[in-house]
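Quick check before the chapter quiz. The format below is the same one you will see on the exam, so make sure you can read both the input and the output lines.
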Amino acid sequence: MPPAPPGAIPLARPEPIVCVDQIGYVRFAKSDFASTKRFFTDFGLVLAHESDERLLYRGSGSAPYIYIAEHAPAPAFIGSGFVAANRADLDELARATGQRVAPIDRPGGGECVHLTDPLGFAVDVVFGIEPVAPLPTRTEPLPLNTPFAKPRVNLPQRPPLEPTAVARLGHCVIQTPRFAEVAAWYMRHLGLIPTDVLCLPDGRPALAFLRTDRGSTPADHHTVVVGTGTKNGYLHCAFEALDIDSVAQGQQMLKAGGWRHAWGVGRHLLGSQLFDYWHDPDGFEVEHYADGDVFDASHPTAYRVLDRGGLWQWGADLPGDFVPQLGPGMLVDITRGLLAGDFDFATLKQLGAAMAKAPRPWLR
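Here is the expected output.
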């Protein structure tokens, strides 16, 4: 029997409670603040607040923080925060979920509805956080000479060797064997729209790039990505930079600092971002990106087959550690998932075949 076409089983979008405007921050537990500070300085975040309990990092934009490190005995991904479109949405979300609107005890104040997603990750929906003055940084891409136009005359191209100037947080990616349940939760509670959905050969959705619903105002191609995996967990979060030079020069700074590179530089297929991935001191993946796609709410959901080749247009092949490797830990995860009914052998087989397929003819 031939494979089902992508989208044969569409990803239904539940009626949303509210529609958030954007992602605001990510939260991590960190046991070693010293190494965290060294890494994120080289990565390009700016330390805005420090105490024994937490570190708050900002970018060059107006948000007072976009990354929160909370001191704890062991490192872990805690969750993420999203900015509500208006104050009334906090009341509506609190009413629909049985929660309450609470004040935020962080610089910038504001209010928050604290939720927990089906995986146990914290999801904060916030409003009223006071903005700060943007930091001075380059705001225009470097001028580009082409075969057809040479605007750069008597002006050599000399981008500074410095950490990537991070403007803001762009998205967060998680995995779970309970894909349909978790994707539906984020669409319902945050009003997210599926932009691109990757499907198994039998037509079932297995990975969704979800964007915020901002009506006629364009939104990033994805703000949350939910993918099918053998266990529940964080995959990466991504921070936006100005252009390819900022991303590539930042790569040199991180390499000089001795940090562990993950993947890049390359260009994604879905979302089009120029990307570069790194491991922080605890092994969590973080990404620099530039030149991403944006869509308004009228753009329809697109479907395609899940495979490695759909993850990037150019650059090195997807590294081996981006693809789950069969071992004792995975066998435990698979057994747990099968016993819980989170997935079946047919799903595992199709996922394995999708990620094993050669992404490019020259990479066979």
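If your answer matched, good. Helices lie at 33-43, 87-97, 179-190, 244-256, 328-340, 345-356.
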